[in-house]
Amino acid sequence: MTEARESETILKLQRKLEPSTGIEKELDKETFILTVTQLIAEYGQEQFYYIELNNKVMNVLENYHMITVQNIIDSYRLVGGKLESFDRFELEDITNSQLLIESHLSKSFRAKLQVRFGPLKGFNKCPGSVLFMMALETCHGSVALDIEGAKLALVSLSLSSYHEENVTDCATEAQRIIKLMQSGYALPVSTGSLLLGNFTHTSCEYFNRKVYNLLNRVRYMEHKYKLTDSKAIIFDPEYKELGPLGLVAVLLEWHSNLLADRMWTALIALR
């Protein structure tokens, strides 16, 4: 784990909340959580990831969205910034638990943690579960900016900027943006119709008609939830098909089929 911590080739969390593209050499938040969860089980460190909160025993890895760094610090018997109530063998295990998390944080990210949490007494000797929550809270510290930027990016997305009206590339970029927006509480209700609006004026009239027909269904579904809790729309029986990510899948399929049938007008016009 010490070698892994210093390695520059192992994928590590650097701060980003958006899903990894597979090109960038870093872990996104969800992959980071999955990776360390598997390693914690492999090394038998699960005991450090249970805390008592509101008279309930909770698994930190499963309920991190309900837990704060301070909750975990309070759950350990920290006396004067030291884990004085643990014996020597437990302290060695705690050190290993910290090392496991550190091995999946980049050096630049660990520096950010030092700046933010360094003033806390015992920061350098905290259990892995505390470091785990510190990493997530540092990620979430800039989530609002990330989400607002993603919303603007989706509004600015234009099929006309893609060569040969490449719906596949444009829709794939939309998918990346939407997944980033999902890091917030809920997507805006009109996200689906906003997405489809980018694909109604292609040079392929057949494709346009199909998109308009789909847009009518999406707007009807969205209208039902405009004045309610925005998260309620995800429970609609048609959401899997008509929600933003479902729409991306449909657009990709339609474009692929038209290309295969040599019916994509923008491509034919250039030949």
Question: What is the N-to-C succession of helices and strands?
Answer: HHEEHHHHHHHHHHH
Radius of gyration in whole Å, from Cα?
23 Å
Order of strands across the main sheet: 1-2
Summed over residues and divided by their number, the pLDDT gives a mean of: 83
Question: How much helix, percentage-wise, in residues?
Answer: 40-55%
Count of alpha and pi helical runs: 13
- What is the terminal-to-terminal distance? 56 Å
Low-confidence stretches: 17-25
Beta content comes to: under 5%
- Overall shape: elongated
Number of strands: 2
Count of discrete domains: 2
Structural class: mainly alpha
Describe the secondary-structure layout.
Blueprint lengths: L1 H5 L22 H14 L7 E4 L2 E4 L9 H7 L12 H15 L4 H11 L10 H13 L2 H14 L10 H15 L9 H6 L8 H19 L15 H4 L1 H17 L4 H4 L3
Antiparallel strand pairs: 1-2
